[in-house]
Amino acid sequence: MTTSLHDHFRWIPDPRTGNNKKHNLLELIILSVLAVLCGAESWYEMEEFGKEKEDFLRQLLPLENGIPSHDTINRVFMLINAELFERCFRAWTAELSQGLGEAGLSGEKELIAIDGKSICNSACKHQGLGALHLVSAWSGRNQLVLGQQKVDDKSNEITAIPALLSLLNIKEAVVSIDAMGTQKAIAEQIIENQGDYILALKQNQETLYEQVINQFNFKEDSYSQHLDKGHGRAEIRNCKVINELNWVDEKENWKGMKSIIKITSERIMGDSHSIQDRYYISSLRADAAYFNQAIRAHWGIENQLHWQLDVGFGEDYNTTRNKQAAQNLAVVRKIALNILKADKTSKASLKAKRKMAGWNHKFLLSLIAKSNS
Q1: What letter would DSSP give residue 349?
Q2: What is the pLDDT of residue 372?
Q3: pLDDT at 101
Q4: For the sheet containing 259-269, what is the strand order?
Q5: Could you give the CA distance from residue 282 to residue 348 in angstroms, rounded to a whole number?
Q6: Residue 254 has what DSSP assignment?
Q7: How crowded is residue 117: how many other Cβ atoms within 10 Å of its Cβ?
Q8: Which of 97, 131, 133, 191 holds its CA 20 to 30 A away from the CA of 214?
Q9: With contact defined as beta carbons under 8 Å apart, do 146 and 138 qualify?
């Protein structure tokens, strides 16, 4: 059985030299993806998965030299070119997205949320290693990871976000980023690539921030309220939008800026009650109901991606210290996550689906088959 994983990841050149190629590189990559899909969270568990499922795996992989050891898997992932690996991942995800079709309403723009996350246990104080930090792009429409970009050790997300944006097709999409990414150059890059932006605004843009706050002392152009209730708590989000920016002089420095947004979030949980104001700028001219929904959707990257990677895949507990291997392993987790997200036949949690894939060969094959569409 040939899968879309075979088609997209076969282009990665084998980094090994000489006769040190007992196990085929593509087989090793696909074995790791299947292992993580079925619950493996370490190199050792990948090996054990392979041993337990060897007869079944031969339906998908020749495995002429059997199952590679965990040390072999680890060493190979230390050598694989991370940039090429991520490029293959983006191409595979683009094909998967097309197969899922248009999940949004007709004419609705795609929402792409961009945010960063550290893999906590990749740090080692004794070796002077900081944690690997990755910036990811999340599709709100299809609930898929579109790509990731490593943040260099002596840099921050401000340099990683433009690099990630340059790798994505954002034409006619709306890109949302938190305050770290609210930079003039990033706004300009999005507009020049025919996208739109919703950028969180904080004191790091002092003059613009003050002008936006002052503008909301006057009447807004649009207003919307939304109530969320559940799990013993309630949140009321009041959204105000101003499209006429005659008194916001700083707008001239932000390419395409057409709207400012204020979200007042009131949260009630038992006896606890809090109110918080948040501000945004956007290149869209839209009503408050749209912005209320779109800004709320941005946090899907926290709940549906970062939280799932930590809770469902144990990402923060992984102790891979080699940055290249950790970066490549993060891609493997995201491949598995996308495969699980693409499945609409079961309403089980991702954690439950991983167990089902490990228990039920038919279900695992169905997941792989869907990723081929």
Answers
A1: -
A2: 67
A3: 58
A4: 144-150, 132-139, 110-119, 173-177, 196-201, 272-282, 259-269, 233-242, 222-230
A5: 36
A6: S
A7: 22
A8: 191
A9: yes
Counting Cα atoms < 13 Å in the Cβ hemisphere of 267 gives 11
Q: What are phi and psi of 70, to 5 degrees?
A: -65, -35
What pLDDT score was predicted for residue 246? Answer: 87
State residue 271's pLDDT score.
83
| Cα gap 171→52, rounded to integer Å | 45
Low-confidence ranges of the chain (pLDDT < 70): 1, 99, 101-107, 154, 372-373
Determine the pLDDT at residue 153: 75
- Residue 340 contacts residue 350 (beta carbons within 8 Å): yes
Which amino acid, residue 200?
A: A
Q: For residues 254 and 121, give the distance between their C-alpha atoms in angstroms, rounded to a whole number.
A: 38
Report the pLDDT value the prediction gives residue 105, as an integer from 0 to 100: 40
pLDDT value of residue 186: 97
Give Cβ neighbours of residue 23 (< 8 Å, ≥ 6 apart): 65, 68, 72, 76
- The set of residues, in sequence order, having a beta carbon less than 8 Å from that of 119 and lying 6+ positions away, is 131, 132, 133, 134, 315, 316, 318, 326, 330
CA atoms of 83 and 88, how far apart (whole Å) = 9
Among candidate residues 172, 178, 167, 168, the one with its CA nearest the CA of residue 104: 172
Amino acid in the structure at residue 308: Q
Q: Point out which residues pair with 288 in neighbouring strands.
A: none
The closest alpha carbon to 250, from 182, 298, 165, belongs to 182
Beta strand segments in 196-297, E: 196-201, 222-230, 233-242, 259-269, 272-282
Give the per-residue pLDDT at 178.
Answer: 95
Half-sphere exposure of 220 (CA within 13 A, CB side): 18
Q: Which amino acid is at 131?
A: A
